[in-house]
């Protein structure tokens, strides 16, 4: 199988507003794919449709070759971090992962490895409430990795992080990909993800503006980048 994610005409409306507008996406297996668009562009809504959390109003799609209409068929091999996961403040990071493993029917033997992968090995015994924002984000990613996923979906994992935290997050994304997993990572800032992405999808107002290898955007896409920036500026005040 060579395509991790594919959609055709994927559409979501809320009332009279079309927030995801006939998206045709193709994410090759094995890449780090960036999913970029300004606030309100429809990134989270699209990711939620891919994860079976929101029902599309139109369109089709598949994840790891299984139709979106059968999420139970593909979700066991998908790890996701969408919004902050619910962790128990008083439990340690490691205990929280043990709880998640139990709830998800996953093998807790993998917990030390995923803590190591996100750089929390030394702090796994500390309580969640003592974690910094970046550590909380990383524990969420560790939880997403527990089930040994083929596809990892991360919705704005750099939100709220300082430049050092953003760099660290890029390193984590890279290392998850080096394990052979496809990663789809969203951001409202192209600059934050372009260095780590082989593949980019840029959306605005629910529509696809660019999709392809990152080098194609950077080579011929100066116009798009400008367009993207102007769009970002113009929607900033209204969202
Ligand atoms: N449950 C909902 N009901 C009504 N409108 C919604 C709902 N969820 C999302 N929207 C609208 O859909 C549009 C896209 O939202 P979405 O959260 O997908 O954008 P986003 O690209 O993830 O933005 P951000 O960068 O701010 O996270 C927004 O205008 C939002 O208000
Ligand atoms: Mg969002």
Automatic annotation (TrEMBL):
The UniProt record lists the keyword ATP-binding: yes
Annotated Pfam families: ABC_tran (PF00005)
Residue ranges constituting the ABC transporter domain according to the UniProt record: 5-230
Source lineage: Bacteria, Bacillati, Actinomycetota, Actinomycetes, Micromonosporales
Gene3D superfamilies, A to Z: P-loop containing nucleotide triphosphate hydrolases
Molecular functions (GO terms): ATP binding; ATP hydrolysis activity
Keyword annotations of the record: ATP-binding, Nucleotide-binding, Transport
Protein's UniProt keywords contain Aminoacyl-tRNA synthetase: no
PANTHER family per the UniProt record, alphabetical: ABC TRANSPORTER, ATP-BINDING PROTEIN
Name of the featured protein: ABC transporter domain-containing protein
Family label: Belongs to the ABC transporter superfamily.
């Amino acid at each position: 199988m060579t395509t991790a994610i594919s959609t055709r005409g994927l559409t979501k409306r809320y009332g009279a507003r079309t927030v995801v507008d006939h998206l045709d996406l193709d994410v090759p297996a094995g890449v780090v794919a960036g999913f970029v668009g300004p606030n309100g562009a429809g990134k989270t809504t699209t990711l939620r449709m891919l994860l079976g959390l929101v029902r599309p109003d139109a369109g089709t799609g598949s994840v790891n070759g299984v139709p979106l209409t059968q999420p139970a068929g593909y979700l066991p091999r998908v790890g996701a971090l969408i919004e902050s996961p619910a962790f128990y403040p008083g439990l340690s990071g490691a205990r929280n992962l043990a709880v998640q493993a139990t709830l998800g029917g996953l093998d807790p033997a993998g917990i030390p490895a995923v803590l190591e992968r996100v750089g929390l090995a030394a702090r796994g015994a500390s309580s969640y409430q003592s974690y910094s924002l970046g550590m909380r984000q990383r524990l969420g990613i560790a939880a997403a990795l527990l089930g040994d996923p083929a596809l990892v979906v991360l919705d704005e994992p750099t939100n709220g992080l300082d430049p050092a935290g953003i760099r660290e997050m890029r390193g984590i994304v890279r290392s998850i990909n080096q394990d052979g997993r496809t990663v789809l990572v969203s951001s409202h800032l192209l600059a934050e993800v372009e260095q780590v992405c082989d593949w980019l999808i840029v959306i605005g107002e629910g529509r696809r503006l660019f999709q392809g290898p990152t080098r194609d955007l950077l080579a011929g896409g100066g116009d798009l980048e400008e367009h993207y920036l102007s769009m970002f500026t113009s929607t900033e005040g209204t969202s």
